[in-house]
Amino acid sequence: MLLWEDYDTPYVDYFMQFKDLTEGGKMYEAIRWAKAEKIANGFSADIFGAERPVTKEQFITMLYGYA
């Protein structure tokens, strides 16, 4: 969410099928942007894992994708 906010909260038109996210939820637009920009993928095609803690390795991977 920090990277999305740093990028001025852009809106992207990208379809997601994550069952553990609710459209309009707190992180929904940030995750949709990160998925569209290939910064974050989630754990599977239908599970993102937004409520799970982010590991150092996952965060470094996201920063690399952001760069």
Radius of gyration: 11 Å
**Count of discrete alpha- or pi-helical segments spanning 4 or more residues:** 3
Largest sheet: none
Q: How far apart lie the N and C ends?
A: 15 Å
Strand percentage: under 5%
Describe the structure.
With 67 residues, this protein is mostly helical. Helix content is 37%, strand content 0%. The protein is built from 3 helices and no strands. The protein has helices at residues 2-6, 28-36, 56-66.
Jot down its keywords.
67 residues; mainly alpha; 37% helix; 0% strand
Give a brief rundown of this model.
The chain has 67 residues and is an all-alpha fold. The protein is 37% helix and 0% strand.
Itemize the secondary structure elements and their pairings.
Layout: H1 2-6, H2 28-36, H3 56-66
